[in-house]
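During data preparation, a discrete fold description was generated, and the record follows.
___
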Amino acid sequence: MLLSRMAFCYGEEKNPPIPCSKGRKAAKFEEHIGLLLSIKGCAREKDLEKGTRIYTEIVKKGLLKKNISVGNTLVHMYTKCGSLVKAQRVFDELPVRNVVSWTALIAGYAKYGLGKVSVKCFEEMQYEGLLPNEVTFVCTLKACGSIGAVEKGNEIHSEIVKEGILGESDLLGTALVDMYAKCGAIEDARKVFDNLHDPSLVLWTALISGYAENGHGDEALKCYEHMQHKGLVPDAVTFSCILKACGSIGASEKAKEIHAEILRGGLLGKDIILGNALMDMYGKFHAVLKVQEVFDQHHLRDAVTWNILISGYCQQGHGIEALSCFARMQCEAFPPDAVTFSCILKACGNLCATQKGKEIHSMIEIGVSQMNSMVGSALVEMYAKCGELVKAEQVFDGLPARDVVSWNALISEFCEQGHGEKALSYFKKMQDEGVSPDAVTLLCTLKASSSIGAGERGKEIHSEIVRGGFLVGDTTLGTALVDMYAKCGLIQRAKEVFDQIQVRNVVTWNALITGYAQLGEHSSVHGIFKEMIREGIEPTLVTFMVVLTACSSSGLVTEGQMYFEFMTTRYGIFPNPEHYTCMINLFGCSGHFDKLVELIKQMPLTDHLPAWFALLSACQKWGNVELARLAFEHAVRLDEKSAWPYVCMDNIYRTAGMLEDIEKLETLRIGNQYTQGTEQLMNCPQFLAL
């Protein structure tokens, strides 16, 4: 973006003055000038058809081998029109090639993302003994940046310094800053910048962009402020770069200030890239309404504009709005691209809108060129989320090329829908086809191993994680390993992995605590909880749920009550209905009905059915009729068709010898018109024996 804004030609020779003579020689010269101007016009208009006709005429007249300017202009025209094969053909036909010829070709390859070819051309030019000019250096540096060839970029930097031309214009300085930044060598980019005298807006923008692209948003903002202190006024490109920096570090307030500056400068409706950058920035803040607002304000739109809006709605779970935007996009004759299809398929999957998903699939099949890996993966995911697993497999099998993203889409969905064996089988196929897994693949397979208790398979995946170096600095994978081993009953292996993780978060601790709790090792649960607190890790709702369950299973009333109180008094965590249910079990099993009554009075919600079931069970155990009646009333109100409350009350009344109440209960049951299934349950010997 930065280099494209630099208005420079590709070293085209200036047209020499037309001689005053009106002879034959002058006429031919005028003809050549006319051809040159025509070719340049084709380049400007990107009229490949006309340019090719002129080329044919030139070849017939033999001008290609007589006039190097004509040949160079033809190479430049073909590169501008995107016909690199023809540009190379004309270049190869030139009897003599100068720096302009090479520069035109180097620039063409660099422009269309063929950086390696561009750099190779630069080296061949030097091998032929030709010295590059400023424009040659700029184009080659752009190529180096596109392929991350920092060492080659360093060599070119040294050549530029040796030639003593670095300080002559901003062109080379900007190209160097941009190259180093794109190669991730942001410190080198800064050194180049600092050694340049009185940098222009273009140079400042290049540096700001470099910091933003490399995840140094704070430094980008500092540069932006420093630039303004120098009296430089940002343009649309500068604003686009700094908005990206704001989005990357979550600087929402600063972003609002910049938005206001853009509006004051009247730039929003004049530059489509700026408008898109502003929308994208608000999208990163999950402010979809602001994205919509900016969309409505600037009327310059392209496919990227629509994609940002649709993606914003998708990310926030507003699938219906995303589909509505997609329909509007089509009505306004904007053809969807791969990004559009991927986003809208995700919306269909989240909504389980199978039919709409199939319609979009048909659209993709019509435009076969749109079926890339990203779209294919989105299709697989959409069908799987809609429950069409067979169709998902069919789409996957029909993909022309399957990369790790495609495999992950299928494996993850099988895993999410509880088909652990299937997920692992596809992981095996993926390996057999020579596709290397990434962190996402390994996370899914660990989850699949956990779901089916495949500890041995989990060990194999663990070995693969270690071999690939994925575990270093990755807390998420480490936590998944702890969770997998714990759920497979291999708690010692879980503890070994836990001890090896350098940075452990609360999720990691919860995984280990849960593992010990599931194995009934409640003393270890309390010990690990205390260790976690000592390390300064704040517990969560999940943590307390596990600890309270352990207390309930062990009958540790005092400890459970202490943990329950700590939730609010020490950590500011308000218990949810599951925590109250756990405490009801704890007090109920221990016969502490006074504490039960106080607890029930504190419950913020009385519509949590498991809590009343737990209370009924406790009352059945201890024969507490009055409290059982309270629990029964709530349970029946919440679920009229459940037989369990009637079974419990029937057993409680029988134990207490309250035969009249049994008859009343039966009358109430029949009056509520319960199903034959309920009647069968009520008469079931196993229930009557309770």
Summary: The longest helix spans residues 24-45. Confidence is low (pLDDT under 50) at residues 1-21, 673-690. The two ends are 76 Å apart (CA to CA).
